[in-house]
Amino acid sequence: MMWLMPEIVPARVSPYRSRRSAVQNPTIAEKLNDVADLLELEGANSFRVRAYRNAARTIESLTQSLSDMVERGEDLEELPNIGKDLAEKLTALVNEGELKQLQELKQRVPPGVLDVLRIDGLGPKKAATLWKELGVTDLDQLQAAAESGDVASLKGFGKKTAEKILANIDRVSDRRFLRVDARNMLEPILETLRAADGIDQVSPAGSYRRRRETVGDLDVLVTAKESKVAMDTLADHEIVVETLSRGDTKMRVRLENDLELDLRVVPEQSYGAAMHYFTGSKAHNVRVRRRGQERDLKINEYGVFRGDERIAGATEEEVFEAVDLRWIPPELREDRGEFEAAEAGELPDLIELSDIRGDLHMHTTASDGKNSIREMAEAAKQRGLDYIAITDHSKRVSMANGLDAKRLRKHWKEIDEINADLDGIEVLKGIECDILEDATLDLDDEVLSEGDWVIAVLHYGLKQPSKQIMKRLLAAIENPHVHAIGHPTGRILEKRPEAEIDFGEFFAAAKEHGVLLEINAGPERLDLDDVRAKAACEHGIPLVINTDAHSTRGLANMQLGVDQARRSWLTKSDVANTRTLKQFQKLLRKS
DNA sequence: GCCGTTTTCGGCCCGACTGTTTTCAGTCG
């Protein structure tokens, strides 16, 4: 017989919990960008193309899941850059998992043409010509056509175009560089430029100045009476391997590791306007220039103009003032709400390095660190910290000589002894405990309960289905002895397409159980990215900025974590380790 | 396709550089 099923009502419905199959924001944004590319190849109206790109950007920077919004019946037209048409298309995409328009476009335009589009120097017009005139629909065909001379014979193409295609065809990538790697290339160049005669100001701009965690290329702005000196100096620099283009005010070079650098030379009185212009982001600049238009002003890299008269531009403050805004920190210039916040007088007072009082993730010689507990503590004290946590690896990380229960207890005893004899800094007994493949923890509850600070992390089994990964994270969050999830996304996103992990569910659980999330400043990988850190913060989850230092030198990386926190709009009060030790410990759940 | 303190049409940011042209289109940031 049939049982009457009671209506299934979850015990508690979180607003952030979503269906497990829900399509994630990055996937949606990617589809919109594909539509834009394909429309462009078809020669569609460029403003229509831009509308799709703008919508994609809106979705990328949402701090909540679009699928959840659809599920809750929210009006997508409230979102910027989403109108009636796109709201309908996106709703259908969320419900059906596919964007019909994209599928239709892919039937008309061979998908390989999108690869042709990625080659430096080839845009939609040229890619379309190659496809329609020569039947080029993938990179192999392109190479053959360039080599045979077919490309050079096309109208609007020539010998140089064909050569450029062959030179760039193996260099198709959207590669981005970690900020630290970019810094190591940039610093020596800045130093050389600053030392050169005839150059006044030298400043990095672009995404580097906006302190993005990765950069696609570098931008350097120089003021000088004559641009030749600056350009020659750059061209002669030992880490510059090739000059890609060079004009009177603008030059682009390739550096040793394939990172590219733009140099712009502007006159002194344009410095502020140029800094603003070249710092971007593009989306931010578009908004500023539009505000200028509304006030009958023209804004470019040389200044703010009313008619032919320059009315501002020596400083960034002047540029913002001309469009009735106060100065906006570079980290916020992404058109992610900074204009609205500035108008409402609600720009956040961003966190500073000096606000940080504790560092709660570091290693010692007990596992894979280079320095002792005492050395780490002394170095942290020198940096002005009031407290630290020593968090060596647990035993599963055998290649890092991870600690089992017995060694951990001995390690913690040593911390007690050092604490008793150290002044001016407090050392917490911590552990970076692995979340194993079966969703249990690497150390049992009894020993974990004896510590002050337990960070749970994923190191292994990251190729498991995302459902199992989520199960492991949730199990760790629900363990009463766990205080924080360490580098929450870094290790996952390294191995997996980010679209698969449902952070809505993850955040909801962390919030519910009072578990902190870590922004990890370790330089060798990406971590909780800025959009998600902002989302976590909006969900009311305290964040902790740590260095994951493996030596006393590694403690210097706190700045990188703070940089990222600033990009996430975080203020002092959003970050737990800006508190005194006593206040910090009050935040931790009692186990 | 989006948007609106010139609001339902008619706009949509702006300039530098390259390679192809012979005055400019395409690409890029």
UniProtKB/TrEMBL annotation:
EC number: 2.7.7.7, 4.2.99.18
Pfam families: DNA_pol_B_palm, DNA_pol_B_thumb, HHH_5, HHH_8, PHP
Domain spans labelled Helix-hairpin-helix DNA-binding motif class: 74-93, 114-133, 149-168
Top-rank lineage group of the source organism: Bacteria
Chief localization: cytoplasm
Compartment(s): Cytoplasm
Function as written in the Swiss-Prot or TrEMBL entry: Repair polymerase that plays a key role in base-excision repair. During this process, the damaged base is excised by specific DNA glycosylases, the DNA backbone is nicked at the abasic site by an apurinic/apyrimidic (AP) endonuclease, and POLB removes 5'-deoxyribose-phosphate from the preincised AP site acting as a 5'-deoxyribose-phosphate lyase (5'-dRP lyase); through its DNA polymerase activity, it adds one nucleotide to the 3' end of the arising single-nucleotide gap.
Name of the featured protein: DNA polymerase beta
